[in-house]
Structure formats: C-alpha cells, structure tokens
What we know:
elongated; 2 strands; two-stranded antiparallel ribbon
Amino acid sequence: MVASAVALLAIVAFAPALFGGWIFDDHSLIAQNPYAHSFQYAPRWFTHDFWDINPDSVHLATRLTYWRPLVNASYCVDWNLGNGSPVMFHITNALLHAAVAVLAFTTLRRWTRALLPAALAAALFVAHPTKAENVAWIAGRTDIVCTLAILVVLAGMARRMDGKRGGIALEILGTVGAYLSKEQAIVLPAFVLVELWVAWDRPPIDLAFVRRSIRPMAPQVVIAFAYLVVRALVLPLRNFAMPSRSLVDHALALLDSLGRFVAELFVPSETVVKVALIHAGGHTGWFVALGVLASTALVAAALGFRTRAPAVTLACIAFAVAIAPTVEMASTGFSPLLMERFLYLPTLALALLVAVLLAGANLSVARIGSVVALLAIVVTTYLATQRSSLYSDETVFADHEVELHGDNYDVRRFRVDIELRAHRSRRALADLIYLRQFAKRTFLVDSAYEIADIATGVVPDLDKESLGALDTFVGHLIDRDVSRATLRIPPVTLETEVFAPSPHLKPRMYALRANIASRLGETDRALALIAEADKACDACAAIATIHALILARAGRLDEAVAALDKSGLGSDQERVAGTLAHIRSAGEHLNRASALSGPDRLREQHEAFAALGMWGKAYELVAPYRAAFASSPELDLVYAGTAVRAGRPDEARAVLAAHHSPDEIDAFVAAAMEDMGWGP
C-alpha cells in the first residue's frame, strides 16, 4: 500500500500535463518524425543517432549525437496506441514515473531497512518540481526510462545476492535498457556499489571494502568503459565545429553548473526549458562559489562518514558520479546545458541521504524530521502541479517563460519557434531583434540571417526596394565583402559585424537569396543561387521546397514536383506536402485557364498565382480591372484580399468602401494580414 501511495503521488503531482500537447523538441523528435511512427524503422534506431531525424538536421544544423533506441521504441508504441495523439505519450510518461516511484521506494527501503524514512524520501524524490521537465514534457522521458532500467538492475542484484531466481535476468534486462535509453547509464556502477554494500551487511567504507568490491563491480565497470570507447569511435558526442574551452573556463563552467543544480534542488526556480551558459553570458560568481561549497561538502561528508555512517558516504559518491555527466565533466565542445531533467537520477542518491538521516536519528529528531519531510512533500507537490500545468499549453508555457526570463536567449528563441509555427511572423521578428543583444558574438551573423529570413516573409511582393535590400544584406553575409552590413527596411533596422557564419547556415543563406531573387522575377539568378544550396543538401526540405517554388513560379511545374521528390524521408513532411499541394493546385488552375477565356480565364490565372503565393503577380493581373471588381459586393473582396497580400492595404480599403462598413473593412484587412503572418 505504501508503494501504491508513492506511485499515486507521482502521478498526481504531474497530472495537469496529462492532456497537454507537443512542446519544444516534441515536434521534431516525435510529431514530425516518421521514424518514430512505425516499427519498420526499428533497425534504423540502432544505426542512426537520436537526432538524425531528417536531412535538414544532419546537413543544416548542429546537434549532439545521442543514441537512444529504446526511447524511440517507446515513442513508436505510443504513436500507434494513441493514433498520434500526444495524450498517450503523456500517459506513458506518468506511468513510467509511477513505476520508478514504486522501485525507488522498494530500493530505499531495502537500503535503509526502514519503512517510513524510505517512504518519505521516495515521496520527496518523485514529487520534486524538477521532475516536471521529465514527466510533463514528453521529450524528457529519456531520464525516466534510464532510471527505471537502473532500478531494475539493482532489484536484480538484490535477488541474485539473496540467492533468489531471476536476478541475473533482471540485471541483464536493466543494463541493456539503461544503455539503450541514455548515455547517463555509464553511472550505473556507482549505484551497484550501494547494492553491494547492502548485500554485505553495510560494512564501513574502508580499503577492505574497496578491494572486495572490485571483482563484483568489474562487469558493470567494463560495460561502461566499453560503451564509452565504442561511442568515441563510432558515434562521438563531441561537436568539433565548436571551439574548445580552456581548462580554467571548463572548470568554472563545471562549478557554475553544479552550483546552479544545487540551487535548483533546494530552491526550485520557475521553469526554464534550456539555459546554456554560453548564451547566459558566462559564469556567475555566486553560482561558482556555491559549486565550490557543494563539491567541498560532498568530499568532506564522503570522507568523514566512512565508518560512522557509510550510507552517507555512498550517497555522496552516487550523487557525485550521477551528476558528473550533467555538469559536462568531460567536454563535448558544446556549451553546458542546465536542464532540470538532468537531476532525475542524481536526486535518487539524495533520496538515499534523506532516508539514511531519518532512519539514523533518535526518536525525537526523527519525529521532527518526519514532520519537516511531510511539509516538504506538500510544498514540492504543490510546486510540481503548478509547474506541470504550464506544460499543458505550449503558447502559455512560452509566454510564461519569456515573462520570467525575457533576457535569456534560449527562452525567447523557444517562443520564436512557436510563433513561426503559428504563422505569427511579425511577433517572431520582434523577438529575434530583441534577443540579438543577448547573443554571443559568434552567433551575431546567424541571428542576422534569421532576422533577414523572417523579414523576407513580412515584406510584400510589390515592395521591390525592400526585397532588394534584403538580397544585398544576405549577400554581404555570404560573401563577407564588407566588414559591417546594414539592413534598413520596414520594420527592421539592423547593423551587424560580418564574419564567417556557422557552416550549416551558408546553404540556407543561398536558399534565402534564391527565394528573394525569384520573387523579384530573376529566375535565372534564383536557380543559380539555389544550385549552390543544393550542393550541401538537395534532399533537405528547407532547400527543396524553395527550389520547387522557384521552378513553379517560372511555370516549370513538373520540374518543381521532381525537386520536391528529392526531399528525404524524415524531412519536414508537412512543409513538403503543403508545397506540393500548392503546386498541384496551381497546375490545375492553369490547366483550366488554358481552356477558358474572358473573366473565367482571369479568375483561374489569379487562383494559380495565389496558390503559389505570387501575390504581386496576382495583383498585377487584376489591377487593370479594378473598377469592375469594385462594382461588385462579392468580387471586391477578391480584389481587396489580393491587394492587401501584395502590399496595397490602402487600395484594398478604397475598393471595399462602396459596399462595406469601416468596421467590416478593418476586420477584413486584419484577417488578410493575419493570414500572411503580418498580424500584431
């Protein structure tokens, strides 16, 4: 019953997120990833890294090469059971967390031989608000699965060392599961050491214990070492595109990370999806100091309690080992990422420490400690429910993050992605311009490109001057023919230092210039530019869709479809499918137009241009007939909609004035601009 109560608490604490949607990485890792939708791709989960989800992610982005086949398998199960609904994924996360809660309680009880201390410690462990990112966010599942597998290993060890059947099978199953779910499985030997200590009747941590532990720990140590060697040779984590930090910088980053994690454990902050030190502006002195204090305390406690309270020593060792990969003890070349979900497994070691302190205290102290623990459980559960409720709506989550941490680069960049998916280009543009002030120098050119890319979408076809300015600006970023580049167009004023952009970004820059050239009617130049982008990745959706649109705008529809066919499986299928639908729709309208004449032919030609987003051409087609359109209370809406989208909102208002009220006109123009992503 106690185990069931802890499991129920684990679910209740994060229940507000059960019916939430996709958030952040969920979109690319799951919703838009066909390899997570069918078991026919199961072999690929083992031969490709976790983020190798499409050609764009491989050729046009920088990523850490994780390897997590078991997590992919769990995604696939959920996708098929829930028919693609995120609710099934949230339910699975909650059930996995509940399973961890049961095993954590039974493990702590076995380690401490005390029911109430184990129950209280397990409850604190499962209801801590830092677990929200693991349980309420679908993509945070990796830590839950890895921890569950490690607990299975420990349960198997306990059975084997008690002489019970099935222990070895559980150890093998858990070990395989841990390494198939997350790289943090390499810390397993630290928890195996605790299990050995329990099986040997809790002796002092002395040289004799260390010698005795070597042989039984050898299999797990060898597996961890072999895993690291194979990964280093076959699928290294290090990002060689990033500059290495000095030893001093690395040490400061490590201490800063440790200090921030410790602060998060004892004073949980408001949610932050991701905080990278390189974006946060370096190392904060008091976090470094807290990291020094924490590491000193761990070492002192581990050494001081070896004989008096060896469980404290083992808890300190397990915590230090478990948190080492999360504070980037070994540099990967990436900026340290401070994600609260990384604390999922390390807090199991702290739960052991809490249970040991409660179990070892005298009666009066134990009572006071139990009351404090109960109050802490109430507070942490409340905080966990509050935090997990934010995960139920991505937009609410992002706005809340920006309100709290508006100066954080990654937080605001997270909202930009949401705004772009929601087709709110102007808001995304405003956020990007604002966060440039927080970008590290090496990312200034990258952010300048992103601003130009989105600005291209809010500049109408008829504003040739602004399109030309964008083309020139991006050209400077590519060619580096000036030391500083300036962009002044409504609504952007931007000046940036010019130096080499990130390697993966240059093909996107060529594609952007190609798109601009096509909109300016310079098809030959557009095709030459897109050919440069194709050299990097003609199967990438970001490039293939632009290539297809350039060809379609030039009337080469069959070639446009062929260009889309090159996009590899796993590319942004929604984007590819949408572009293909627009091209085919344009083709159907042009075919009908060829058999018609007069107004009917004009209508079909107009619809063909509209399907391809060629609003400037559509406007030029209907502009000579403005009077005829304006005289009709129905056709005037067609003309006005085209005029707004082409960049002539005042003309649209004039045409509508004869048959519509000012409020109706305002609403129509606003809706048309919203459709273009130009809304406020």
